[in-house]
Amino acid sequence: MSFVLVDQVIDRALAEKRIVGTVVLVARDGQVVYRRAAGFADREADRPMRENELFRLASVTKAIVSVAALALIERHQLQLEEPVTKWLPDFRPKLEDGREPVITVRQLLTHTAGLTYAFREPEHGPYHRARVSNGLDEPGLSMEENLRRIASAPLSYPPGTSWGYSVATDVLGAVIARAGGAPLPEVVEHLVTRSLGMSDTGFGVKDATRLAEPYADGHPEPVRMGESYTLPSRASTLTFVPGRVFDPRSFPSGGGGMVGSAGDILKFLETLRTGGAPVLAAASVEQLTTVHVGPEAESWGPGWGFGLGVGILVDPVKARSPQSAGTWQWGGGYGHTWFVDPKHRLTAVAFTNTATEGAFGTFPIAVRDAIYYGSRA
Q: Are 112 and 162 in contact (CB under 8 A)?
């Protein structure tokens, strides 16, 4: 197995100044077969990227929080079909016609709850007017206030009738805290990260000296985000406030609030790929990685459906992907992607400190393709 092509992809992205730094890890059959840290964790300070670098995980958080929910379901502390109002009595968003539909835990996990993100709607849409946080901005905002803001905006569609990427996992985080009887960070640590020895990963920064500086797409090179940075999105804009993670008053965002290392996420994904123990039973992992919505969900583009918190590849041809059908994948807006291909017993984590190239640009696609074509060499 050769990974020369992966090295070439990384070298090219750095030379072309599309990313600032990266950590790429690949495991096959449970063994790490490729590992590389390259570029800068902090370009201005001339600090090189290290394999144990900490990253703001953004939506990489979602899979971890979804697993915590499934662990509570296994313990009979939570149920998929129960209404969210059992745990959050005041969370009652309505449709535009005033009807108040039931939203279930399953619909939060599958992003079919009728919720959305502000960056997925026009600049003057309801979430913008309500100032709903995306979990990456507004330091010091409480969970209670953000739930109030979400519930004040009309639902985008009747729950269960469509798929829409959304703040659902933030709401799920609040449900998990109530069902687990402790703040979300404590429940996630108890159910997931501590059991797996994910010592770098949590809702706070374990070691600020190892935290990668975030950058955003720019020309002739990525720009440092600084205190706040707003990126254009397909519908409007997406705002990042990197310092949010240092404010203990900020609500623990189940959709994007964790910090961690590539190595921890590889460990987490490999645990799921090999059956889930000691975190989940194999049946729960199967639930997580089975298509519940799709392929019309197009969660990661054409050919992709959605499971209980992760995207699932349904049609590799339509997706133009070398990955096998049944591959599960997600990423994070600060510049990350990961995937697990069960058929090939392959797990890959590609983290960068550059939004959005590291998550949605040519870099993750090129890394993916190089892993497959290089492994066939």
A: yes
- φ/ψ (deg, to 5) at 31: -110, 135
Cβ-based neighbours of 16, under 8 Å, separated by 6 or more: none
Q: Are 224 and 215 in contact (CB under 8 A)?
A: yes
Token pair 């190892």: residue: 210
Domain match, 50 and 74 both: no
pLDDT given at position 298: 84
Work out whether strand 215-216 and strand 354-355 pair parallel, antiparallel, or are unpaired. parallel
- End-to-end CA distance of the chain: give it in Å, rounded: 7
Q: Report the CATH number at residue 350.
A: 3.40.710.10
Check whether residue 88 and residue 51 sit in a common domain.
Answer: no
Q: Is 4 helix (H, G, I), strand (E, B) or coil?
A: helix
The answer to the question of residue 139 being in a domain is yes
Whether 59 is catalytic: yes
- Checking if the pLDDT of 376 tops 70, the result is no
What residues pair up with 40 in beta bridges, in sequence order?
48
Higher pLDDT, 295 or 134: 134
For residue range 327-346, list pLDDT tens digits in order.
Answer: 999 999 999 999 999 999 99
Catalytic residue among 59, 133, 236, 284: 59
Helix axes 143-152, 168-180, angle to 10 degrees: 130
Please report the pLDDT score of residue 375 as a whole number.
Answer: 63
What residues pair up with 240 in beta bridges, in sequence order? 229
Widest CA span of the chain, in angstroms? 59
Beta-carbon contacts of 47 under 8 Å, excluding residues fewer than 6 positions away, are: 40, 41
In the numeric block, the tokens 């374990």 are attached to 206
Tokens matching residue 25: 């890890």
Domain that holds residue 115: 68-187
**CA nearest neighbour of 357 among 27, 118, 35, 39:** 39
In one-letter notation, the amino acid at residue 343 is K
Which of 158, 187, 216 is where one domain is finished? 187
pLDDT tens by residue, 170-220: 999 999 999 999 999 999 999 999 999 999 999 999 999 999 999 999 999
Q: Of how many residues is the chain composed?
A: 377
Instruction: Please name the amino acid found at residue 275.
Output: G
Per the domain annotation, does 342 fall within a domain?
A: yes
Q: Tell me the one-letter amino acid at 206.
A: K
Give the global pTM. Answer: 0.97
Q: Is 320 left (phi over 0), alpha (psi -120 to 50) or beta?
A: left
